[in-house]
């Protein structure tokens, strides 16, 4: 069976592109403004940036509008655009301890430094559809924005500040330790510059998970919770907010270029460093007793809690390779969650794959011919032998 | 074409695209002389216009380069326009040879690895003239190999036989090797380029 | 850079001081453009590199083991000018050619031997105040969601 190359259809293809626009506009509804998409579809924009691996909210909003909301196509468009640009700078390491926090919770500890801040979340909503949303006007929006300020309880206010991490509690108690795991490959890999070969170092895992498709990553993470893996982490800390980005300019001076919105999850799990010496391990952590806990780390562009949490779970799972559990297998996880790879390959099946049976038919016919000739030869041989015996 | 003619300003996208196409085409058909549409850029004295246009097309912050002449203006041009990082000849992704009669830098250039032959260096060698017709004192190059029907004959002035001997040694173990671009300013044709990919065999004789 | 101590009480400084750069990245574009338009009349400004978009790769590291990795690239706009022959560089997130140009001009002036222009200083202080207030306003609302979950047995 072989594939047959085809050509032609240029006119039909060009019209198909136009037909996309026809289907977009035939309802004759008012065009959606870029700023509307960027501000009112904030989470879709953030997801597109994370999967497109390009932090550019206006472009992500444009992509979503252009592709009529298809998240895979939006990521695809952003990756394509990114490929046309030069990378002229590498920023300084960002520090999520500097985050301007919107939301910051821990499921592991009730009391955490600075307190639990729910932030903007639907976690506690009942998921009831709200038809009133569509009758909002600019006037009613202004009224809402004014009135919400009237509900501020001054007792809860303090000045803008940063928050210490929950991880620091674990460190102080000696339950976790900083520093590398012995024997682990600490190389800093850039998958956008170097092709991957398995096993990849942890930096490549983190980079690929940060740009992975959210749904696929969720599938992998959930599988680790359901017994196809070995981890069941708890959320040590989940933070969503803005972190400053700094870049060294041509004069060598460090410049702040703004803040980016990120989601960070620290999933508490086993340390993977060996068994704990005992319940009364030295509290100061100075003994040779191994730290008991470690974190699976998740960090991604935009407000995408699911991705950050699942990233933490999966990267933790990948540090204990296990052939029985798919989510503990680097190749299984990294290839199948890479959005362009998986979307591209599954969808490429739609492009002409016209198959010719000609070669197969010819092989079949030849086989029959060969068998017939062989049978004839054997019949003649037997006959000749028979004749010789007379 | 002299720079006295009115030339349009350099467009980072469209000109780079066009010039890249010229490079591709001349690499695919070694022996043909590629011509760049010139653009209004200020080029330092040690670089010819063709070299400058190739630098703008191919170099970026992600690559390293070596210049065989210590020239502040040329280095500043390359680094300001492309952010390419200067380094030693044996480490550079691109070697820019203002004087290809000398072969020391060429002999140290990277030739890549068996599994990663593309990690070899690309050499841009500035010469005085490139011509399909005989030139006095020039080297006559007879080129054969992929992309050339039978053979191609080109005359180059400003490079030594040693250059080609050294190059042959560097290219002895295909797929490892070096790809070379000869560049010159031609009065009649403007910035020109002659590609010598590692797949091309060159025999040369002094006229 | 100070962080809050274990008990979570605030320390002086709060969020890291991100400086003039941050103020100019975040302020409204119109006042910035007007300010620079006024400066254009007083100084000789030459654009060395027109504002152009490019990428900045952003590295991060995990909070415990400090493993560096590449989070992803951000779209930025950069611009290079000289103001009275002094170089200035503007760099900001997003596709913002006017802002990058204005930032480059201000950058050059702020590093001049005679910083001069008290009007510029006043403008920067005003904008800094506006941007800081915006953060505080938003935080005031966010802090309304601070929660202290009680165990079931507690009142």
Structural overview:
The complex is a heterotrimer of chains A (390), B (207) and C (155). Chain A is an alpha+beta fold. Chain A has helices spanning 10-25, 34-40, 42-52, 57-66, 71-82, 138-150, 166-172, 202-210, 214-225, 305-318, 330-336, 339-348, 358-389; strands at residues 2-3, 54-55, 87-90, 100-105, 116-117, 234-248, 254-270, 293-301, 355-356. Chain A folds into two domains: 7-82, no CATH class; 96-337, no CATH class. Chain B has 207 residues and is an alpha/beta fold. Chain B has a single domain (14-206), classed as 3-Layer(aba) Sandwich (Rossmann fold), CATH 3.40.50.11310. Chain B is 25% helix and 26% strand. Chain B contains five helices and eleven strands, in the order αβαβαββαββββαβββ. In chain B, helix 1 packs across helix 2 (49-58). The longest helix of chain B is centred in the first third of the chain and has 15 residues, at 14-28. The relative contact order of chain B is 0.19. The mean pLDDT of chain B is 93. With 155 residues, chain C is of the alpha+beta class. Chain C has one domain. Chain C contains four helices and four strands. Chain C has helices at 19-26, 29-42, 97-110, 118-142, and strands at 45-61, 68-83, 86-93, 146-147. Chain C has a three-stranded antiparallel β-sheet with strand order 1-2-3. In chain C, a hairpin with a 2-residue loop joins strand 2 (68-83) and strand 3 (86-93). In chain C, helix 1 (19-26) crosses helix 4. The longest helix of chain C has 25 residues, at 118-142. Chain C starts with 18 loop residues before the first helix and ends in an 8-residue tail after the last strand. The model of chain C is unreliable at 1-13 (pLDDT under 50). Chain A binds chain B through residues 86-89, 193, and chain B through 60-62, 83.
Please bin the fraction of helical residues of chain B: 10-25%
How many β-strands of chain B, per DSSP?
A: 11
Would you identify the regions of chain B where 5 or more consecutive residues have pLDDT less than 50?
none
Q: Tell me the fraction of residues in β-strands of chain B, as a range.
A: 25-35%
Largest interface: A-C, 99 and 67 residues
Cα-atom Rg of chain C, whole angstroms?
Answer: 20 Å
Radius of gyration of chain B: 16 Å
Distance between the termini of chain C: 40 Å
Oligomer class: heterotrimer
How many strands, which pairing sense, and closed or not: the largest β-sheet of chain B?
7 strands, mixed
**Count of separate structural domains of chain B:** 1
